[in-house]
């Protein structure tokens, strides 16, 4: 299956289910001098489920992974992108993406059974504790075009590993489409941007919360025990940068994810380009 094609201009340039692949394509075209760069993103997928013990009604662990990886005319660009993704998601290196996906799923389910089976044997007659052992780990990834020659890589994670509730997170990686380099805020903004950006983000957070003072903001559970900061978890969209704050980063779990968008026009004096 092939997704729609996206185009951007480069400014200033002359239990075990067998894993399978679904092709998802992102085409990036560089205009100027007749040159072009094309990056295809394919999908490495794996699903594995394992029961904790052999008893009927045993808890289980399910892992569902859907990970986009780059295929490019420039092998070094694809390699740089894929190594960064593999390191971020699985803390692995030296494997192709399908191998990394399969290895992580096997390792995760193996450790689940090895670690939790002895504990479950002590708790299995207590129905109130049954759900503590129903683990799941899901990763779903997507790509889209961003500012100038940027590829935005979106990671949605959902996992439960015991406790009161599961965790949902969105992680973002921004890649230069030519080099494959992952971009940080220091690649986008001039030195010393942090103070002004923090101030602007705080203003916008107050607008979101519909408050005027820090005391009122904290009364709504924002920044109750932490300070505002420009998150390295950001989306470089075509017209704005969106900072992603997952649960617990600037607000408690019940508040969910907070997204704060700043238009480039508001921070044009802070941009490198």
Structural description of this entry:
The structure is a single chain. By secondary structure, the protein is α+β, with helices and mostly antiparallel strands. It contains five helices and ten strands, in the order ββββααβββαααβββ. It has helices at residues 75-90, 97-123, 185-188, 193-209, 214-219, and strands at residues 16-17, 21-26, 39-51, 60-72, 135-145, 150-160, 167-176, 234-236, 240-245, 258-263. Strands 1, 2, 3, 4, 5, 6 and 7 form a seven-stranded mixed beta sheet that branches. A three-stranded antiparallel beta sheet has the order 8-9-10. The model is unreliable at 1-36 (pLDDT under 50).
What topology emerges from the helices and strands here?
Layout: E1 16-17, E2 21-26, E3 39-51, E4 60-72, H1 75-90, H2 97-123, E5 135-145, E6 150-160, E7 167-176, H3 185-188, H4 193-209, H5 214-219, E8 234-236, E9 240-245, E10 258-263
Parallel strand pairs: 4-5
Antiparallel strand pairs: 1-3, 2-3, 3-4, 5-6, 6-7, 8-9, 9-10
